Amino acid sequence: MNVVKRPLDISQLPDAGEVIVDAEGHVAGRLATYIAKALLERPNLRIVVVNAEKLVITGDEKMVIEWFKRKISEWRTHYNPEKAGPKVPRRPDRVFKRIVRGMLPKKSETGRSALKRLRVYMSIPIEIMQRKRLVLYEVPEAKLRLRPLLQYTTLEEVWRSIDPEAWEKWRRAVEVWGKKLKQVASG
Hints:
The chain has one domain (2-186): CATH 3.90.1180.10. The longest helix is centred in the last third of the chain and has 23 residues, at 164-186. By secondary structure, the protein is of the alpha/beta class. It contains 7 helices and 7 strands, in the order E-E-H-E-E-H-H-H-E-H-E-E-H-H. Helices cover 43% and strands 19% of the residues. The N and C termini lie close together (12 Å). Strand 2 (16-22), helix 1 (28-41) and strand 3 (44-50) form a beta-alpha-beta unit. Helix 1 crosses helix 3. It has a 3-stranded parallel beta sheet.
């Protein structure tokens, strides 16, 4: 398998087909705006985002985690503990898809069809890894630029602190997936 990483420019996107974006090291909001714009401008283009757990959210780690915890728990009250308010995603792939959804006009047919053409995965699925030539695109404008005293956290770290049991299950599944990937690569 041949893996190639290339920078991606919105003006050079194909009109149809599939584009695979590697989200590692990208700032979540910046990448989401780029993807939302591309989905709206190109109605026949499918975008696949891989490594969603490595997306970055800037800000103090404790502040970001507390914000997520408050967002998840604010709808349950003492008077009505079973209240089912808005469902807030916890997994990194679903969090990122929700961020992109917030940037699309979800009440119009254009926005709904654009969201259907977006796929977000944690790590890289085996179906994608089995391709003979894999081109992973990166968005240079959305990459995290490291500066002194810059505080950031990844979506995986946020997920680990919010839902440690689910994170641990996923971590074990990644180990099994790694073994399968080695088998695919060798045979």
